[in-house]
Amino acid sequence: MMYGMSLLFGQKERREIGNRTRRAMEEAIKQGKYPAKTPMGYNKTEDKKLEINIMEAEVIKDIFELYSKGNNASQVAKIMKDNNIFNIIKISNSNNFNVSLIDYGASIYNIYLDNKLLTVCPKDISYLLFPGSPYGKTIGRIAGRIENAQIDIDGTIYQLEQSKFSKDCLHCGSSNFANKQFDYTVKCFDDKIVVIFHYLSLEKEAILPGDIDVNVIYTITKDNKIKIEYKAFSSKNTYLNITNHAYYNLSGDFVSGAENQYLQINATKMMECDEDLNPQKVISCDNHFNFKEEKLIKENLFTREVIFRKNRGFDDAYILDNDKNNFAASIYSPISNIRMNMYTNYPGLVFYSGSYAPFMELIEPVSNKFLYDAICLEAQFIPNGYKIFEKNYMYLKKNEEYNYYIELEFLKEGI
Questions:
Q1: Which residues contact 286 (CB under 8 A, 6 or more apart)?
Q2: How many CA atoms lie within 13 A of 311 on its CB side?
Q3: Is 32:16 a contact under the CB 8 Å cutoff?
Q4: What's the half-sphere exposure (Cβ side, CA atoms, 13 Å) at 197?
Q5: Chain centroid offset of residue 25 CA
Q6: What are the backbone angles phi and psi of residue 128, rounded to the nearest 5°?
Q7: Is-above-0.85 flag for pTM?
Q8: Closest Cα partner for 245 from 130, 138, 404, 121?
Q9: Contacts 24+ apart (CB under 8 A), 336-339
Q10: How many CB atoms lie within 10 A of CB 403?
Q11: Interatomic CA distance for residues 356 and 186, integer angstroms
């Protein structure tokens, strides 16, 4: 009898404890708190409220998408494992502006505005492992061509890797930052998201003096801006010239060739190049190379002076004019009414019309259907500039900070 009563009281106590716990949890939920273990896709703040974990949320979206297509749990797990070559950071704002970044090459994978694709990238993301695939990647240590693949730094000649297509070195060859896996962190604020990519470039891998500790910092804002900051330190005196190699076509989903965009470059001076496209001397931006005022690209491109060049188009370095807002260039598509303004504290800009884009399967619906799918605007120091300008041009002293930026502003006009 006593055993039966004890069991009855024990069951009643357990029920009461359960009820009290449930009431406490319900009260916490009413206050916006989450009293249980933090679910995947969220972070728990100090006051026990949930906030979205951007990285994990994208993984969960991918899992649900794969499951909705008929994959079972084990198939989803295998696909996720097999595709874990890169980490993709997807960022969006309330203006339907979407940016995807990748840790391999500290890259811009794609940019969308109003669900319209504005940049070129391989359809198969694994193609980014191909050294000749520069799409959206960070280029360095030294962007551009190094004449004869030799560079003199403080009296020492460094022999670099030659390009497959010339005797020069292009973008530092296989040691290019574009071919490196960066570490990264993500920081979220009310009005922006900041992604910090980090890489330590060792002297022995680059065949150039100094270990370079570099941060590539992307800031994506609520007003459709992407700011890319390059901050670095070197353990020795060296040369450094870092840029981004994104290809832009603002028509939206590539419904038109890049030559049908309008282009403005804030420059009255440019570089005259030798037959291998190495800049040699400063000249005026005359005739078909002048984009000081906004102009339809094909008006200059489809001319005898440009189209019959060795590179079948533009691959030219412009010396940017001084501007209080650091305005460098602008692209505008009358088809989508989308404009991209570029600002930078770099002294130069390379305009590449993209006629030698690597022959790989591009993201649909492009698939190389135009001769000029997209164009590059690469803000940087003038390639070969250390031979043409003052000695300290793109020269980074030991333990001094390298601090340059490129800012992209995307606007919808006529709305």
A1: none
A2: 20
A3: no
A4: 26
A5: 44
A6: -65, -15
A7: no
A8: 138
A9: 336/114, 336/116, 336/250, 336/251, 336/252, 337/412, 337/413, 337/414, 337/415, 338/113, 338/116, 338/118, 338/250, 338/252, 338/410, 338/411, 338/412, 338/413, 339/250, 339/410, 339/411, 339/412, 339/413
A10: 10
A11: 34
Task: Encode pLDDT of 78-116 as tens digits.
Answer: 666 566 567 899 999 999 999 999 999 999 999 999 999
Whether the upstream peptide bond of residue 141 has omega within 30° of 0, thus cis, is: yes
State the pLDDT at residue 8: 44
Q: Under DSSP, is residue 348 helix (H, G, I), strand (E, B) or coil?
A: strand
Helix (H), strand (E), coil (C) string for 57-97: HHHHHHHHHHHHCCCCHHHHHHHHHHCCCCCEEEEECCCCE
DSSP letters, 139-184, are: E-SB-SEEGGGEEEETTEEEE-PPPSSSSSEETTGGG-GGGSBPEE
The separation between CA 84 and the C-alpha centre of its own chain, rounded to angstroms, equals 19
Distance of alpha carbon 374 from alpha carbon 340, whole angstroms: 13
C-alpha 329 chain-centroid distance: 18
Using the Cα atoms of residue 146, residue 149, residue 154 and residue 155 in order, give the sign of their dihedral.
Answer: negative
Q: Which tokens hold the place of 412? A: 């919808």
Do strands 338-344 and 295-296 pair parallel, antiparallel, or not at all (unpaired)? unpaired
User: Which positions ≥6 away from 182 have C-beta within 8 Å?
Assistant: 103, 104, 105, 106, 197, 198, 199, 216
For residue 260, the tally of other CB atoms under 10 A from its CB is 18
Report the alpha-carbon distance of residue 95 to residue 191 in Å, rounded.
13
| 151, 158 Cβ separation under 8 angstroms | yes
AA identity, residue 325: N
Percentage of the chain modeled with pLDDT above 90: 50
Give the mean pLDDT of the chain.
Answer: 84
Residue with tokens 């807002």: 325
Confirm if 105 and 138 have CB atoms less than 8 A apart. yes
Contact between 41 and 52 (Cβ < 8 Å): yes
In this predicted structure, the answer to whether residue 77 has a pLDDT above a threshold of 70 is: no
**Rounded distance between C-alpha atoms, residue 100 and residue 82, angstroms:** 20
> Burial level of 218, CB count in 10 A (0-12/13-18/19+)?
buried
Whether 105 contacts 177, CB under 8 Å: yes
Q: pLDDT, tens digit, for every residue of 126-147?
A: 677 776 778 899 999 999 988 8
Angle at 225 between CA 230 and CA 290, to 5 degrees: 80
